[in-house]
Design a protein that fits this description.
about 190 residues, alpha+beta, HIT family, subunit A, globular
């Protein structure tokens, strides 16, 4: 059966369970767009700055790169694979992997941009809390271990529902470009 009725309005819907193997009690929500992240597309193959996305972003326009604000030594950019809407990363321009490799001035600007990110998110989205931190090294959970970056994740009561736990899917109510525009408009002036 090809799934189409030649006299009908369109293709016949086929029960997906016919293709999923042995029937079970689980429903499935397919998210093939996540394969880009899982497959590591755009992730540097080595510690080299040559193909590092964080090194390449500053050469693009703010809107294209999803950069919210630029400083002298660091910038704030939206995460392409956010945990929550408004998930930002504060990134030093210099390609360093370890927090202890930052200069005192870089540490100060990363800290200042973290404060500004929190202020912008509070103004734009009124989160009830934040997760802030760095994953150091691949074993520590860093998706791009070769270039240090600090996550600023806004949190709301009840923001973790069944989707990430059971469905391995995040529900984001706002496009990244809209989040970038909103946060840039709320970014505190120096």
């Amino acid at each position: 059966m090809d799934g189409a009725d030649p006299d009908g309005p369109g293709p016949e819907l086929v029960d997906g369970r016919d293709y999923a193997g042995a029937p079970d009690a689980f429903q499935r929500l397919w998210t093939p767009h996540r394969m880009v992240y899982i497959g590591g597309e755009g992730k540097p193959a080595s510690d080299s700055a040559h193909h590092c996305p964080f090194c390449e972003l500053p050469s693009r326009s703010d809107a294209d790169a999803l950069i919210v604000s630029r400083g002298e030594l660091a910038f704030a950019v939206l995460n392409l694979y956010p945990y929550n809407p408004g998930h930002l990363m504060v990134v030093p321009y210099r390609h360093v992997a370890d927090y202890t490799d930052l200069t005192a001035a870089e540490v100060a600007e990363v800290a200042l941009f973290t404060q500004r990110a929190m202020a912008a998110l509070r103004s734009a989205a009124r989160p009830q809390g934040f997760n802030i931190g760095m994953n150091q090294g691949a074993v520590g959970g860093a998706g791009i271990a070769a270039h240090l970056h600090q996550h600023v994740v806004p949190r709301w009561g009840g923001d973790m529902n069944f989707m990430p736990v059971i469905g391995q899917t995040r529900v984001l109510p706002q496009l990244l470009s809209e989040s970038r525009d909103l946060l840039a408009a709320h970014w505190p002036l120096p």
